[in-house]
From TrEMBL:
Organism, as annotated: Pseudonaja textilis
One GO molecular-function entry: ganglioside GM1 binding
Designated name of the protein: Reticulon 4 receptor
Family classification: Belongs to the Nogo receptor family.
Kinase found in the keyword field: no
Subcellular location: Cell membrane; Cell projection; Membrane raft; Membrane
Pfam family, one: LRR_8
Segments of this protein annotated with the region Disordered: 316-359, 381-418
SMART domains xrefs: LRR_TYP
Signal peptide location: 1-22
GO cellular component, one term: perikaryon
Record-level GO BP terms: positive regulation of Rho protein signal transduction
SUPFAM superfamilies associated with the record: L domain-like
Bias (Basic residues) ranges: 393-407
Amino acid sequence: RKRRSKLLILVLCLNFPSEVELCPGACVCYSEPKITISCQQQGLGTIPIEIPVQTQRIFLHNNRIGLIQSTSFTFCRNISILWIHSNNISLIEPGAFYGLNKLEELDLSDNVNLKSINPSTFQGLVHLHTLHLDRCGILELSTGLFRGLFSLQYLYLQDNNLQELPDDTFLDLANLTYLFLHGNKIKRLSENVFRGLTNLDRLLLHQNRVGGVHRRAFHDLGKVMTLYLFNNNLTVLSGETMAPLGSLQYLRLNGNQWVCDCQARSLWDWFKQFKGSSSELECHLPTQLAGRDLKRLPSTDLEVCLDSFNQIQTTAKAGPSSHSNRASPNNPLKDKENMAKTKHQVEAELPKNGSSKHINDSPFGTYPSAVDPPLTNLKSEFLGPVEPSTAPTKRRQGCSRRNKSRSQCRMAQPVPSAGPSFPALPSLLLPPVMWSLFCFS
């Protein structure tokens, strides 16, 4: 047994120098647990050309490499891990990774000048399960960039400059479980942006500029357990949009400008059946609800609707106690508020195509106090009279008593009559006339 062990040690010692001799300059090479070429932090400006064919792991991070050529890894068919992060890469030539059928992990992160990637760059990487493209300054994702990456499970795209995600960008990624998109500039999520991600577990979209989410944007995300959408520009998110997320356990929606009016009712209803953990949804509007958690509001607070100017416009429920638009004759303050609405605004709010939707069931469509400009600051052309919905009762016009006596004011009042009107005779002349008629009759 001793002889056999000595022979084994001798064989290992004879083989080790042959591998070391093939090691490129400025690199460290070792064979356990896998044949590895480590060249990190060596100030390299290019990828070494003398990489052994049998190499399984290559570490080239923290150098000054600016280009990955189409021939850089031509003979490295056994690579399973390739790290080239934290360099100055600005261009990856088409075909640079062609033939690397055993590659499982590719890290290109922290190359801030990469910005764009040819759509054929990752073709053929059928065993790739982890791809790092974070902090690369990427402006857009080319159509078909991830096509054929059926084994991919982890995709890191955070902290780039992405402004939009085309439909079907991730269509072939049926095995993807983690998708990191936070720290970009994404503005909206379209209907089929996540189509194909049937096994996704974690979706991070926080710290973007998302202001709109299509009602079917999450239709393939039935297995998502974690969804982060905090610190975006969301104001409304419907319960219908959230309904496909049947496995959701962790949800963060804080840091958005939530409008807690009738449009939030469906999301409020969805939260009633949601069993997972969620952050607060602080209301931004209306002002009387600012800072309160949408989930904890009573349903009555969500009956009011705001228009595009944040004006209280309608109530979701109309009953006998609902306020009418008719001005109160005994309340001049309400009459003044009615005048704040111009005629062209009223016409713009009228239902179209015979719609029976209520336009304004709230008290006179008043603004919240923090938003409403005072009437004294409005231009005169915006203070025109509003046509009432019903004909008001006729009232006699008043008389200014400035420089006039009480009798002169009386003379100025019109006398209502069913027939043609005549000027009223002075009341003081009536007795003498009648006396003369009596005497001479």
